[in-house]
Amino acid sequence: MNAANVRTPAVGIDSVAQQARLVGLWDTAPGLKGFLTTVDHKQIGIRYIVTAFIFLALGGIEALVMRLQLAGPNLSLLTPDQYNQLFSTHGMTMIFLYASPILSGFSNYLWPLLLGSRDMAFPRLNALSYWIYLAAGIFLYAGFLTGNGPNDGWFNYVPLASRAYNPGLNEDFYSLGMVFLGISTTVGAANFIVTAMRMRAPGMSLNRMPILIWGTLTASVANLIVVPAVSLAFLMLWMDRQFGTHFFDPAGGGQPLLWQHLFWIFGHPWVYAIVLPAMGMVSDGLPVFCRRPVVGYSVLALSTVATMILGFGVWVHHMFATGLPGLGLSFFSGASIAITIPSAVAVFAWLATIWLGRPVITTAFLFFSSMILLFVIGGVSGFMTASVPVDWQLTDTYFVVAHIHYVLVGINVFPVVGAVYFWFPKMTGKLLDERLGRWNFWTMFIGFNLAFLPMHLTGLLGMPRRVYTYADGMGWDTLNLITSVGSFILAIGVLLLFINVIRSLKVGATAGDNPWDAPTLEWSVPSPPPSYNFAVIPTVASRHPLWEDRLQEQGEGKSSLTRGMLLVEGKETIGTSALDAAPDMIFEMPEDTFAPLLLTIALSVVFVGLLLKSWIAVTAGCLLIGLGLLAWMWPRRQLREREPTPGDAATESSHG
Amino acid sequence: MAEVALAEPRDLPVGPTGRRGLGSWGVATLIASEAALFSYLLFAYYYTGAIASPGWLLEPNPSLKLALPNTILLLASSLAAWWGERGILTSRRTQALLGFAAAFIMGAVFSLVQLQEWHSKPYSIGDNSYASLYFVTTGIHMAHVLVGLLVLSALFIWTVLDYFSPRRRLTVTAGVFYWHFVDLIWLFVFTTYYLTPYLGFAK
Predict the structure, then answer these.
(1) What is the DSSP letter of A334?
(2) Which residue among B8, B40, B136 sits closest to A245, beta carbon to beta carbon?
(3) Which residue, A7, A215, A472, B110, shows the most beta carbons closer than 10 Å to its own?
(4) CATH number at residue A222
(5) Chain B neighbours among A 531-570 (CB < 8 Å)?
(6) Is residue A181 within 8 Å of residue A136, measured between CB atoms?
(7) What is the complex's ipTM, to 2 decimals?
(8) Residues B33, A224: contact at Cβ < 8 Å?
């Protein structure tokens, strides 16, 4: 190991010898040990994606069962309590266990490749974030599978969620599980922020970052600040239920509306956090198929940030019907209307990109471009409910259900499936089948709109949400049947995606490095990329390093992709300054380690202990966490966190 | 054709150097998130208090007899930790050890006094929402103090092992930064729970 404190990084060209040395430094060990210890962002990203899709399938099955129950009036497939648990678990699954983690998965996989880095800023934290997500997901589902799923809706209003009205363990599973999951989201967000600020390739100044980076970065800043609100709310709820506190209990001077404030202070920024990265996928993916750079890069980046900033000030629009003072409602109504402006900017930028480009119709293009339409429909219904009197008419009806599905399926699921078609070749080296892809797209698109477009009308006709059945003769029968039929068609569409993925893994056509002739750095490396991502650190001179010959636009010259810093003295990557990405430090990256998994197990012991009120388990778990953190933070020579002292052996354990 | 823009940097520091490195960004994000948590806790207090009925404050004039000296003690511990960090920066190991030990002891005494303070309160956590907020907010702060004490003791051990130098000391700076945060945020908690009643809030 080179122990120098300062070094001039050697510059050279990509070569077989260079790659062989990097493989030795970066490859994860094969077998179970490698599986449990890896900190490779690509493996973690794929795990995130696979796990999130499993939750999407579970949430989808829950929805189908509900649609069977609602297909006609007065059906009795489900009891009211089963229905309550199903719709609550469906919301919890889709919003917390699918929509956010799927984007974390793509961003985890793609970020270092987009940025020209060899890993994320905190690889061990990255592994921790995944393991906690998995453990919290299992914890939440353990409640559901034992008949203790959440049963007051995903936003879980008190007093219904308080113990007096809900004596089972349902809400305790949900409360503790959400606090647990919050840790994963928070550490993940911190990792994205630091990665974006410090790990970009030399030359990738802020105004050259792909929009996906802007989207996930903005969402991560929001998550970092707002997740504590919901964690605190759920902690307070759990204490109200189990320890006789009175945070939300009016009889003890508490405020039921405090729950709604804390939940929506988190909840509304969160809604943007689960769409902004997906909008980034469209901003980066769509132009590739329009054969031109995205129109209005700067306004797109700015509108991403503006959406988030405004997004902090709109939470009360979920509470228009709670009797708050009119002046407050006006302010939040105004903010909610204003937030359509940056969204419209994005829509026009995408439309202009298609208009000015030469679109190549692929499945990915269809998913990305159809998202614009769905976004507009969801945006208009959102704009309508931003108006207080309209909201009073529509709140708690199926109109709002239609709105949230247009927004979340339209701006999250459709871009994500497009992203699968777009980046699957990079992840696996295989192309997805385009013919099956068309079936996949049209089935999903028709099924989705058939299910949810009529639902606006169901809501306008006054059908309340969250009822397990309805009487006939209300004018809702046919509409509900159409929605149920549409939901099954949508489900078949999603199934076609899974079939395409599994089939193409086996027999898909070989993709090559850059099957779409795309402009960004991830397409300059092999498919799938090697463990170290980049054999030499690229230098970036424009927003489109692979399109420079044909664009001849901005930038101070040509990007250097095959010649750059070698950094093979250890597991190293380059650190650059936050604004203009000038190299300013050589980062030593940590080795694979069991620490994140062990810490997650210790945390699981604590949360199960809290649920069962087993204070021995809680104490033991906390001690383990303390020891684990001490070991994790122990200054290590390999990471240059401490000075070598005389007499120290040159070797050091790679775990800690 | 334009020229190839190749970054060919001169000497670069390897690994965390001084207060620069990924760790300082990491602890900054941690503190941002923790600060948000405390702001929600205080929001809950002000929100609930602002619309509470008279009599909500179970101790309308909170006793400052223990709390004020204890607050000064905690702030002084920040000074001790800073002085310890100075010891690392100037390669004076004894000063560093003394500083970290003093900060640890002051923090530990703060915790013990706070336990006494909890014990001496004429109300308990289930009495009303004021009591719930008081105990949970100061309790969450106490959890942070305990983590901070763990950090200070780790810094003490690592300094005994002679791990740090003015160059390799980001761990120290990050740990002391966290301790400053724990102390600073107490000032907000203290002001909210002990001083605003004297200004008439929620009376």
Answers:
(1) H
(2) B136
(3) A215
(4) 1.20.210.10
(5) 537, 539-541, 548-549, 552, 555-560, 563-565
(6) yes
(7) 0.96
(8) yes
